[in-house]
What does this fold into?
Amino acid sequence: MKNQLLTLALVICALFSFTSSVDAQNKEGGMQFDLYHAVPPHQGIIFRAVSTVSDGETVDVSVLGNLGLRFQYYVKPKFALGLDLNYTKRTADRTYVGGITGLSYTDAIQQTIIRAMIRTSWEFVDSEKFHMNWANSIGYRTADWTLSSTDPLFIPDADWTGGGFPAFRTAIGMRVMFTENVGLNLEIGVGGGSVANGGLTIAL
It folds into this structure.
């Protein structure tokens, strides 16, 4: 699936590159803000596994995010430096019947992820209404877990305490501008959040 999405982005790039022209929006000193959300919501490997139920169990999984804000400042025409900040919150409630007591219990799992990354972006398609870029980001990621249960015998696993890790992302992005200052964005990449995300672009 990831390979197919990346191939699609490259094909679109090839189609538009023949008609590219210089756009004053991306000149030196210009700025852009992207507000984005994962497409679809970024459930994650662990929460996909948690959502698998056994006989006598019910699991309710909800996800907010990957919700983020990208900022970039053009230090040269078509080349920008900036930040990528994003947030993800996942929760899962597992309801089951205790084997010893025969009573119904609920285990609640919550994960909160925050990423802050420095970002570089090279605009390789730069027409009046359509832009494409190759972006690379590196930074820091926290992943905090909260575990609770109505089962008095529940003992949290010490390995689920979260912590900080390096974060990175490489991606192909595109923007369709409806006016000089407002447009939509779509990005497809690996690492640092969801495979695909999209949202609103503001250019200054």
